[in-house]
Amino acid sequence: MKPLLLKIKGLNSFIEEQHIDFNRLSEGGLFGIFGPTGSGKSTILDGITLALYGKIPRAGGQLNGIVNTQTDTAQVIFKFGLGASGQYSIYQVQRTYKRTFNSKTGHERVSTKAASLYDLSEPDNPKVLYEGQREVNAGIEELIGLNAEDFTRSVVLPQGSFSEFLQMTGGDRGQMLERIFALEEYGEKMSARIKRLKDSQYLQVAQMESLLSAYADVSEDTMTEQRSQLERLKADCLLTEYLWRDVEAKFQKYKLIWEWQEELETYRQQADELNLQKEKINEWQAQIDRAEQAAQIKPLLNRLEQREFEAAERNKKLLVLNRQVTELDEQLMNTRQDWEKACQKRDLEVPRGREKILQLKRGIKIAEEIKQIQNEYDELRRQYQTFSQTLTELKKDLEQKQNEITARLELSNGCRKKLEELKISPHIREKLNHAYEEERQLQQESRKQEELQQYINQLNTGLRAGQLKIKTLTEQHQLKKAVLDELFVKKRNLEENCPGCQEDLLNWQQKNNQLQQEIDTLAAWQQEKKTLQESLAKLYAKKTSLSERFSQEQGELKSQETLRQEYQQLIGQNREKNLAAVLAKKLCPGEACPVCGSTSHPAPVQADEGREMEALTQKHLLLDKQVAEQQALVRQIELELRDLSAKVVYQEQTLAALDERIDGRQLADLQVQAQKNLDYFRELKSAINSWENQQKNTDDQINELKDQLSRWNTEVAALKTAQQKDCENLAKQESLQEQSRLRLQTSQERLNLLCTELGIQQAEEEYLQVLQNDRQAENLESQLKVQQTELSRLETERLSLQEEVNRLDLSRTEITTRGQEKNQLLKQLQAELKTICGEEDPKTALADQEKIITDIENNYQKINSSFEYQKELYTELKQQHSNLKGDLRSLRKVLEQERIEFEQALSQNGFADRVELSKFYRDEYAINQLRQSVQEYNADLALNVAHIQRIEQKLSGFSISTEDWQKLQLRREELQGRREDLKNRLILQEATYNEAEKRWSVRQELHRKKDDLDHEYGLITDLENIFKGKRFIEYIARIQLDYISREASVKLKDITRGRYALELSAEGNFIVRDDYNGGVRRATHTLSGGETFLTSLALALALSSHIQMGRASLEFFFLDEGFGTLDAETLEIVVDALENLRSEKLTVGVISHVEELKQRVARRLIVTQAVPGVSGSTVFIE
Asked: Which end of the chain has less Cβ packing within 10 Å, N or C?
């Protein structure tokens, strides 16, 4: 990382924006930032850390107070490069802060207003990488590789943070090294990766075990059992299929006969229903005939009724017209009288009104002129009053200005007199200044004398306390050494009496686990044996019962077969008998018998007409059915016996295998042995844990005592060195005290001489009085200038007021003349207006007159329109009345003719009157509905007869009873259900067997994969143990720290001319070796301020030169403290060391107010102090 440019505005003492060009500043490799105390040097480092990390570590990370009091916002912009030298990627971070004030609490608060990070690698195309405070902070840490604390400990070292890394110990320094040397990959990140890998592997193992548990029910025994069940189901399916086909053939034969029977019964029920509807159908036919006759006369009736209705309507209308004509005649007479009156009024009053309107319009015009002139006259009066009032006020102001001028002249004369009184001669002023400076030096020397005396007293006290502490530490060291020897003896005794190790515990644990597993297995086998024995007992009982039933059913089958054979013989005999009867029936008297050849037939065989043969056949068929069913039952029982025998054999073999596995072992004996092993394991574990605790406590005590002895040795050596330095310092301070006493005596003599010449007692009091007089004289001169300025201003204002008074007086005279002219014209116009309209308003009078004329015209038009309308309406009504009377006479003639024609039609068709005709009348739709119903009935009747004849022909005398049909259905359904059930069971068993085969194959493959996963999990566990507790990263960090300490030691030796070297203790803490004092090793907290600075500088140089995180190599660091504690010689050495760093491509910036250091640094950034109320701090490069 290389800084390029920093811009600061409104931060601490900076108000205006200041630019710091690090490219120019760091050309020589070493530069300095100089300025007086409080000028804002450290604020430059604050600006860098604030821009990068959004906080200032030396302010505790707080933002309150960072914004200058003369502004409400602060802004920092920092441009820097990352990468190899000459191949930088350019970035710019920018932050703006705003101060707000809470009126309720009275506190101010500074918050981030904006934050952004840009990539400026392409100047013409800047890219915004992050925006927002959190996002920019995270982006900076990712780019640079350091957080804010690490940055201030190793790169930008502000006041108070320079020696932090030197004095850090333990976990804090380990975490810092882990970050700055990119060791997270081998520490927490590596452990996290291993843990994630282990968790993933453990999850795979658990998943594999879960998968295997899903296949726990698959074994070779279950496969044999599944195969046996499959064969039994196949045999049952074949037998059931044979029985079902026999029953299905009979079912299909009688199913058609049963359906015909049901259909025939339906049609017969339909015939009965049709016979019940016959009377109603005849009635509908009669209605159809009368409705057709009525339909022929209905048009005549409709026409006659229409004529009658029209005649009645015309008669009503004629009456109405008669009444309207009479009423309209009376209205027409009244309207004619009103019309004549309106014409007379219009001709007389309208001309007079129009003449009056012309006069009123002239009056309106005059009234408007009067109003305009009156407004102008009022405006002139208002201006006259305004000018008069303004003129009075201006005259008062003019008089007041004159009084102020007089007062100012008197005050200026008084200031001049007092100024002459306060003047003092330059000769006296110079001597007084010398006396004042001499008195101040005398006071400073007195204070210094007192401070030296106090410091000498402190050194004497410290020397005595150090001697006492050395004595006490030596005595404690001897006591602790004796205790340490006793602890070594105790440790050897423990090692000789070790009860065992963790490996012994692990072996015993494995033995106990194996024994417990054997117990669990034996218990499971015994439980399985008991279950098998109970199952075998049940199978033996079931097999015995089934064997007895099989014997019974076989005997029944033999009996049925014997009876069937007997019926078969009877059928044969009966068939022969029937054949003889047939021959006997064909014999004729005198013909030879075809059997015996005799012509005489005394006793021919008589036929039984087949009734006996039919009965024997039916019985034989029934026996065939019974025999088939009995054979199926016997086969089913035989299959069940075979199945039971196979189960018995399988379970007997399983029981024998279990007896072989148990091999006479007793569960109680194994449990007793397991309890003994467990008790011994617990005793051994307790003893080992107790021994390890004692061993650990002893080691901890030994290490603690070693640390204490080492610290005491270091502390004693440091105390002795400090005693020697304090003695040297005491002699030096006593010498300085004597020199100060001589300077104090000389200064007192010079002061007394000056006070005598000036004739004063206290130089400071007189000097302060002179200063007060000077300040008073300056105030008087300022007041005199102000008075002169005010006099000039007042005279100018007085002249301006006099000119304004003259102008206003002239304007008021002109307004008076114009007002008199307007008043005379106004009186003339008012007289003329009064002549035209008197006291009445001309506009109102005009409106009233126009309204009168309009009303007359409107009334005339209204009456005239009404009169004309009534005349036209009367003429029209008279014409309508005449036409209507003619139409009514013609209509009555036509009505009489049509009535005669209608009555003749009624008589011809047998209807008495209109009422009877309406009773039998039906519209065409109703007639068609009745006719269609009759036709449908006749069609249904014919179709029903045809269906009954068709079905009787199909049956041909065959039939089946409901009981026989139901039995046949039940038998078929029973066999079909059993057949489907066996098929489903067979399909399910085949699928189960196939699935079992697949699961057996999968189980073998899963076992192989699990063995591989267990092996990988063991390897990952071993790797996790290697990286546990950050042991690996601690090892790498210790190597890095050793390297840094060696390089820092080389730099420290160069700076201290071979006196000091830097080492690491056994605990990894920094210690300093003093080679000028016999190689004594001292802890860092015992170093003086100068020694701490030199050691921290060497360590910071070594650390900064080796920081490497990601893509960010740090090529600079800043130093902001410690140079004031160095003497001239050491300062020379430090500057030489810093200048030598330019060859190492490292830029170093130092911040100091030490003048000697400023002279040695070629490139300097000068910070000038802020001027209150004028400007903030400023910077420039020299």
From this structure: C
